[in-house]
Amino acid sequence: MIICRSPLRISLGGGGTDIPSYYKKYGGRVISAAINKYVFTTIIVPYVDGIFLKYSNSENIKKITNIKHPIIREVLKNYKNLSKRIEITTLADIPSGTGLGSSGSFTNSLIKALQELENQKVSPKDLAEESCKIEINQLKRPVGKQDQYISSFGGLKNFKFNKNGNVNVKNVNIKKKTITKLENNLLLFFTGFTRSSSKILSKQDSQTKRSESKIIENLHEVKKIGDITSKLFERGNLYEFGQLMN
User: Fold this and answer.
1) Which residues contact 245 (CB under 8 A, 6 or more apart)?
2) In the 8-state DSSP scheme, what is residue 66?
3) Do the Cβ atoms of 214 and 122 come closer than 8 Å?
4) Is the separation of the CB atoms in 89 and 19 below 8 Å?
């Protein structure tokens, strides 16, 4: 049995500037933190032929093209040699649609589990890029690269999304005592509400492609908040960071 877990995340500045329609014109910057809530994937090789899937629904099919779950279907297309006999189960610590990057974590966890099944060793960057390729290029979803990258690298990271699509990854230069204070003063609540990020991001994406001034100005401001957040963390100034959050 292969078991993989992939962390969820919170954005601490710059969220939304990691979408291609924005960063290809202006460059993006996001401060992101992995948290101790996860998406889990388990894989076993059953005794009979078939593709057995267990997520929020269950599927028992013979062909990859008949898989209803879009991410699992697209990922397995890249691992056809494993699809004759496989059982995949996915679980999560939190519901989907809560704004913690669960889709990117789900994709990362599934890809990593399949790579482990094939005894493949891959770098965090290559894992993140393969996950981005699935969601952005193959499924044409209006998502950014933040979720896949923070899920792959973990920790507290400063991501720079260059116009050519390359991503620079740096650790935030923050002292351990500041991290401890940050963790002790950030609270995360489940409100019982969920929403589709695709609908929200589709609107942002289309407005950005049309160069609508309001959305561009908002994203510029959000990116600026990401830059300021990084500097405040380096100085250990969490009070002003709290004001930015407000």
Assistant:
1) none
2) G
3) no
4) no
Q: What is the DSSP track for 13-31?
A: E-TTTTSHHHHHHH-EEEE
pLDDT mean by block of 10 residues, the chain; 246 residues: 96 92 94 95 95 95 94 94 92 88 95 94 95 93 92 96 95 93 88 79 83 91 93 94 89
Long-range contacts of 113-118 (CB under 8 A, 24+ apart): 113/2, 113/3, 113/4, 113/41, 113/42, 113/43, 113/88, 114/43, 114/75, 114/76, 114/79, 114/82, 116/2, 116/4, 117/2, 117/43, 117/82, 118/79, 118/82
- Contact (Cβ atoms closer than 8 angstroms) between residue 203 and residue 219: no
Give the pair of three-digit tokens for residue 13.
């500045």
Q: Which of 92, 107, 113 is nearest to 39 (CA)?
A: 92
Beta bridge partners of 161: 28, 167
Is-above-0.70 flag for pTM?
yes
